[in-house]
Amino acid sequence: MxxxxxxxxxxxxxxxxxxxxxxxxxxxxxxEVCVATVPEAQVGQYVIVHAGFALNLLSxxxxxxxxxxxxxxxxxxxxxxxxxxEE
Amino acid sequence: xxxxxxxxxxxxxxxxxxxxxxxxxxxxxWNIMEICGGQxxxxxxxxxxxxxxxxxTLIHGPGCPVCVTSLDAIENALQIARQPEVVxxxxxxxxxxxxxxxxxxSARAEGADVRVxxxxxxxVKLAQENPQKQVVFFAxxxxxxxxxxxxxxxxxxxxxxxxxSILPANVLVPPAMHAILKSPDNRVNAFLAAGxxxxxxxxxxxxxxxxxxxxxxxxxxFEPVDLMRGILMxxxxxxxxxxxxxxxxxxxxxxxxxxxxxxxxxxxxxxxDRQWRGIGVIPLSGLGxxxxxSDFNALKRFxxxxxxxxxxxxxxxxxxxxxxxxxxxxxxxxxxxxPASPLGAPMVSSEGACAxxxxxxxxxx
Lengths: 87, 365
Prior knowledge:
Number of strands of chain A: 5
Shape of chain A: elongated
CATH topology of the largest domain in chain B: Rossmann fold
CATH class of chain A: Mainly Beta
Strand content of chain B: 15-25%
Number of helices of chain B: 17
Number of domains of chain B: 2
Radius of gyration of chain B: 21 Å
Oligomer: heterodimer
Shape of chain B: globular
């Protein structure tokens, strides 16, 4: 699928005839990925991979921040529905 | 990245909470278009459409690369693939897409050397391994796929691989959004922008669109929580008459996007007018090779005969791609047209709306 992007972790960086490449771990499966598009990438970072190329780095901080915001909505909803039952 | 951070975006509980919040906020009917066909499939696969209140209608957009690839481009692909010295390479989805009389799969059955590649860099490697052959890559797809094609051309140039070329057919999202919003029969009130296109391009290009057409846009990912959160952001804006771009996929997308990828794209490609199947020509909606890279253009390497081609009269793919009809509205849906015997591209592709409705058993609209 052409918009599909799969997150994976960089385990090794190397050069292929002048093009920046990496081995990326997708839940235990290692695959070769071109990382010419993310020159700042480091081993241990996560990338979203599409058609053998890294589209961008993934931010763990942002993922955790989004989860924190979502939990607030959940708690707000739960408080509100509890309020309604008590009315 | 901790497992909790990634798995949280598939939480059924959070998805339902967000649907509850949408239900609480909504006061009137709204049509929200997800541009990307991958999102259409995720919405139907997780049954998100069935969790939403009846006021919210999801309209499926034109973001299916093989669906919008023009018949002319497919005819050119077939002519190139049939040349004896050519190895024609493509993403797998494209092989079964019907042209006027044939598809790449049937050309292969008749002896053409047509191969599926996972990445355009694999096509460059094939060229390196087969110096006596001409290896051509069918360059389809949106901004998600373009960096991989640009990087492959730069790799071929750097390593003087002269028997590699592309058939340019890439398309861009923002011009298609303009075309949809300008259309007199437009029904779209808000957009979910495709997260992986924005991972590359950022979302600054969408801000003038949101303002000009007073249409909220939420940059949205592909997991159920991401999708529901994008829809919630759109509903919040619609209900409070705000028209902005918001980011529901901040772990992968920044406003500026991936600058290195954008630089590669603009080094190799420039915007050109492009024909979209079922939609027509959209100005500056495609990418063509810049003059410095025109040696990589397969259209210049091979002598092609232009033929007049026409669509199946039964297929309403154009209306489906513009968001004006749903797959079950088509009289041929599930009858003359099935994934085993498709009349139009949206029934073939893993990103096509017709294939999604067929696969996930949405019979009525």
